[in-house]
Design brief:
Layout lengths: L19 H17 L8 H13 L3 H11 L10 H17 L3 H24 L1 H17 L4 H16 L3 H12 L9 H9 L12 H13 L3 H10 L11 H8 L5 E4 L2 E4 L8 H28 L4 H17 L10 H13 L4 H19 L11 E2 L2 E2 H34 L1
Antiparallel strand pairs: 1-2, 3-4
Length: about 425
């Protein structure tokens, strides 16, 4: 069965033994680092989380989410799913009961979830991978106060369950992760093919029943408001939300986006002269089309593979990277899931250490280049060899994506050619 047997280049599929000394060391180091970073203010998003927590202090959970998603509080109506607000609502009530500030409780929660992600990785693949996971997420969660660790905990547990062939449980955990932040929904087709297994049987659909019940229960509890938030997120009008991708390059070329927003200010693009509006719109359409083409190729690559967990993780990286590299509505921290998947890829196949390292670097460099280590941005010049450094980084990301994607595209083309020849 899928995920039941060890794979070439990987450790034994069973969880490695993790001693109490190693776990205690991991916990101690993690807590000490987290406490040292507790006062780090994070990005401007932190203020929005605190607004939601203040709203939660005076309202029920349902009313808090309704106000945030329908009426809007703070900057704009939220596009976050409801389980993020469950956590923030509980944190606000906890802060109130303890008589401490919302900010401190928020930072403690991020530390706990980061340690949880590291602990899952340590229990699943060994202590060194637990430490690597903690370091991978430290800037995102502990320094810059992003909420990605809230959904990553259940996502990592879902991967562990997939490997152990606990498919229904994995589907439930995956559903919980996307109800905390929408991005994992991009991997929905891969989850479907993995859980169904081959040969396909209608009875296999029963594995999705618990996950469907969880989704329906959350929808009923929040009176369909989650669909309003989802549609808002799916139609995010942001062209380039500081994600170093193709749309960032188009922004650098365009007349309307000739000013590159970096470090909270404007940095002039000196790549080429500004483009006419018509060409700018054409390039934007091409970028959006590439998102779906590359994504479908990644899904097809997984469908045609042996569908091991390693195949799943590789395809998941490409699916999410297709989303990140092309099309609008992508923000700087959205590469977090791809970086986490990269570390999981190396944990399953030790020969993938280069890919894992680059994905981790791409993610952390993207958020640091705009926000530094305290949310205020970096102070040194953003010009390298006559070019804005963000342009060079976006070009590197595009090249690296092509290196990962082209072999899968060739495999898909070969597989389709072979199947066509047989028919």
């Amino acid at each position: 069965m899928v995920g039941a047997n060890p794979e070439p280049g990987s450790e034994s599929a069973g969880a490695p033994a993790v001693g109490w000394k190693a776990l205690t060391l991991l916990l101690t180091i993690g807590v000490l680092i987290g406490l040292a970073l507790l006062q780090s203010p994070g990005t401007g998003d932190r203020a929005q989380w605190l607004v939601y927590m203040d709203t939660a202090r005076h309202n029920s959970l349902l009313e808090t989410y309704r106000v945030a998603a329908i009426t809007g509080v703070g900057v704009n109506p939220t596009d976050y799913p409801p389980l993020s607000f469950v956590i923030l609502w509980l944190l606000a009530r906890m802060a109130q009961a303890l008589g401490t500030s919302d900010f401190i409780v928020l930072k403690f929660s991020l530390l706990i979830f980061t340690l949880g992600c590291a602990g899952v990785m340590a229990a699943w693949r060994g202590t060194l991978f637990g430490i690597a996971m903690y370091l991978l997420l430290a800037i995102d969660a502990l320094l810059l106060t992003y909420l990605d660790v809230y959904f990553l905990l259940t996502f990592l547990l879902a991967l562990w369950c997939l490997e152990r062939n606990k498919l229904a449980t994995a589907a439930v955990l995956f559903t919980l992760s996307l109800l905390t932040k929408w991005q994992p929904i991009i991997l929905g087709p891969l989850i479907f093919f993995y859980v169904m297994q081959r040969p396909y049987r209608v009875a296999s659909l029963m594995r999705f029943v618990p996950a469907a019940l969880v989704l329906l229960a959350v929808d009923a509890a929040f009176a369909n408001i989650l669909f309003t938030a989802f549609l808002r997120g799916a139609s995010d009008p942001t062209f380039s939300g500081k994600a170093l991708n193709v749309d960032w390059l188009i922004t650098a070329l365009s007349e309307t986006g000739g000013q590159l927003e970096a470090r909270g200010g404007a940095v002039r693009s000196i790549l080429v002269s500004e483009l006419p509006e018509g060409i700018y719109r054409h390039l934007a359409s091409v970028s959006s089309a590439l998102r779906y083409v590359c994504y479908l190729v990644a899904v097809a690559g997984f469908y045609l593979s042996k569908r091991s967990l390693t195949d799943f993780v590789q395809a998941a990286i490409l699916c999410f990277a297709s989303y990140f590299m092309f099309g609008g509505g992508v923000h700087e921290n959205h590469a977090c899931l791809a970086a986490v998947l990269g570390l999981c890829w190396m944990a399953l196949d030790r020969t993938r250490y280069v890919e894992a390292t680059v994905l981790a670097a791409m993610f952390n460099i993207n958020i640091v280049v705009f926000y530094g280590f305290n949310g205020g941005g970096l102070s040194f010049p953003f010009v390298l060899g006559g070019f804005d450094v963000t342009i060079l980084l976006a070009l590197f990301n595009l090249i690296f994506f092509a290196v990962l994607w082209l072999p899968i595209a060739a495999r898909v083309l070969s597989g389709l050619t072979t199947r066509t020849a047989r028919t």
